[in-house]
Amino acid sequence: MRKWLSILLPMLFASIILWAQPVCNTPGQNPSTAFPVCGTSVFNQASVNLCGGRTVPNPKCSTVPLSDVNPYWYKFTCFKSGKLSFLISPNSATSDYDWQLYDVTNRNAADVYTDASMVVGANWSGYYGPTGTSATANNLLECDGNVPQFSKEPDLIEGHNYLLLVSHFSNSQAGYKLEFSGGTAVITDTANLSMKELKVGCGGTQFYLKLSKKIRCSSIAANGSDWEFVTGNVPIIGAAGVGCANGFDTDSIIITTSGPVPAGTFAIRSKKGSDGNTVLDVCNNALPDSQTLVVNVLPSVPTVIDSIRPVQCMPSTIEVVLKDNVLCSSVASNGSDFTITGPAAVSVTGAQVTCTNNVSKVIRLQLAAPIRLGGVYTVAVKQGTDGNTLTTECSQQTLVGNSQTFTAYDTVAAIINVSINSSCVTDTIRYSNPGNNGINSWQWSVKDDPTTGSLPNFTMLYTTSGVKEVTLKVSNGVCSMTGISVTDLAQIRLKAGFEYPNFACPGDSIVFTDKSTGPISTWQWDFGNGQRSAAQTPPAQLFNSSTALSSVPVRLIVGHVNGCKDTVVHRIQVPNNCFIAVPTGFTPNGDGLNDFLYPLNAWKATELHFRVYNRLGELVFETRDWTRKWDGRLNGQPVPTGTYVWMLQYTDDKGKKVFTKGTTVVIR
Question: Positive or negative, the Cα torsion across 7, 10, 13, 17?
């Protein structure tokens, strides 16, 4: 077991050794090159390469950092849900092996170094000896230290993919044996192996075979003897699995012939190769002998420009899409393999390709200046300064003059024409855009207003002055532009108004003060007393009334030179006299005649106080508002007929305080 109680120095020394481990480059020692697993196989790892030391997170074991020390990785798929049972048996009695299991379904294998949620089981016990899973164990996750060497069997899910890390903490090259048995989960693929698809490569010298599932790279005969042509006399001389240089399994094989296979229809047939077998899947199940697939070999022809990708507004690059891959080395970097002609002169200054295995179908042409003039342009192939046109993988050069067209679009202008029509009440602003260069979309918006528009013309009605801001975005489907119109409205808004008294006593000299607003040029006063004035400040007026009280209308009309006008009318009350008096009697019988008692004509009185008492000296009515009248009632009930005493005090318009009293008779 690990010496957990040993002194700190050896532990520190061991940590330095682990920290200095080299990066794992051997296939099987990192997640992306994991060994494929068959549930019926026993894996004997005779020795372990010393490398690794990358931290691996664990959802439970967070106090002590865990790492993939001298690791080996294994991958498998669950074909039937159940519990996983496996055993790791070290070759040395003093070896300490740890393990961690991940669900990597739809995940990048490298995520095991960053995402603890992928862990479905683990055991980092500090004891030497066998480790793995057991039906009698208690925990799915056992952390570093003096913990059981076996973890609970994890539940696998059908269709999910898994990675198993086996880490050798002891830092020695002593190996181990890994075997899967006893669990209820099925990780053995029992599907039949078959040839799925066959495609021809360059000039008929290479064929790409796709299998129904992955096979062991080691089962492929390098001389291609696992296959033969049913017809034809061109021999197969080689076969190699795609990705086998850095892995153990593949489902794609490149089959090479000694020379070009002529155009026509051919069938390829599986057979036992010089290694004594056909190709084998992960569980050593063989591809059946004499399976056949048909392929059509087409004559090798030059590629052509398939299309030009849609261009943006004012494009400075043009992307050319070819029908077939061309060698990246055949593309002149200065763009001289192409010319562009059209309504405007266009100069190609460069060409860029993104290559995979030195081939690409897309070439991005760099232009000397953006294309601003709309129209149909033509991209054509010519011989570049490198002495060739575009060359396919089969050494076929694209014909000079091969071409495709594309459409460029004119730039647009968000021109806003403004027309203003003013009235006395509103201002109408009409905005418009001429719609040049194929504009087919208009988006009008108003600052601080929800109103919008989507036509070439746009109208706004304003009842207030100030700065009015409208934004227009135009587009022809490719090019767009935004413009802003700012208009400062100095609107003509007249508002008539004047100060006036509520009443006018006979003989009073009444002054009216103009309070109108706006650019006023004329005033027309009509005082209702037969007098008129055209002055802004009219002369004082006198009013008389032939009745007890008249309501006299006073009108002011203000105008502007453009004809706009506004009118206001206020009424003032004109009594026939303003001498305050209290009647000596009244008849509160509801006939509409002399029904109330109050101080008459107290128009100018201030600080007024009027009280009425009965013969017993009880207060029966009181008011400080001379227009509030006594109706001959007390607490809602009519008072008896008889004589009542009133008292009146007030301040007159000269500031003199007046007190008077008298009697009145209630007559019913």
Answer: negative
Residue 11 reports pLDDT greater than 70: no
DSSP 568: E
- Strands (E) located in 506-652: 513-514, 522-526, 532-533, 549-559, 565-575, 585-586, 606-613, 619-623, 633-634, 637-638, 642-651
Record the tokens describing residue 334, joined without a space.
Answer: 């200065």
What whole-number distance in Å separates Cα of residue 285 and Cα of residue 279?
8
* Terminal-residue alpha carbon distance, the chain: 126
Is pTM beyond 0.90? Reply is no
Tell me: pLDDT of 17 over 50. Answer: no
pLDDT band at 115 (very low <50, low <70, confident <90, very high): very high
Residue 618 contacts by C-beta under 8 Å, 6 or more apart in sequence? Answer: none
* HSE value, Cβ hemisphere, 13 Å, CA-based, for 351: 28
- What percentage of the chain carries pLDDT values higher than 70? 97
Helices (H), 348-484: none
Residue 422 CB partners (closer than 8 Å, separation 6+): 428, 491, 492
Alpha-helical runs (H) found in 171-277: none
Is the pLDDT score of 25 beyond 90?
no
Query: For 273-303, what is each residue's pLDDT tens digit?
Result: 999 999 999 999 999 999 999 988 877 788 9
In a 10 Å sphere around its CB, with 0-12 CB exposed, 13-18 middle and 19+ buried, how is residue 294 labelled? exposed
DSSP code for 245: G
The token pair that represents 193 in the structure block: 């192996």
Half-sphere exposure of 171 (CA within 13 A, CB side): 13
Q: Would strands 206-216 and 195-200 be described as parallel, antiparallel, or unpaired?
A: antiparallel
- Sign of the CA dihedral running 123, 124, 130, 136: negative
Question: In Å, how far are 38, 122, 132 from 86, measured between CA atoms?
Answer: 12, 12, 6
Which tokens in the block code for residue 172?
């020695």
What are the b/e assignments for 50-85, b being 16+ CB within 10 Å? bbbbbebbbeebeeeebbbbbbbbbbbbbbeebebb
Please state the φ and ψ torsions of residue 216, each to the nearest 5 degrees. Answer: -75, 130
Residues 170-199 have a mean pLDDT of 92
Element at 200 (helix H, strand E): strand 195-200
Cα separation of 530 and 507, whole Å?
16
CA–CA gap between residue 115 and residue 103 (Å, rounded)? 11
- In angstroms, the CA 386 to CA 181 distance is 63
- The strand ranges marked E within 382-492 are 403-408, 417-422, 427-432, 441-446, 449-453, 457-462, 466-475, 480-489
d(CA 122, CA 86): 12
When computed from its CA atoms, the radius of gyration of the chain, rounded to whole angstroms, is 52
Tell me if 194 sits within 8 A of 286, measured CB to CB: no
Structure token digits, residue 453: 């528009």
> How big is the CA angle at 364 (ends 360 and 365), to the nearest 5 degrees?
135
Place of tokens 């008072």: 639
Residue of 21, 301, 369, 346 whose CA lies nearest to 171: 21
Nearest of 153, 297, 277 to residue 220 by alpha carbon:
277
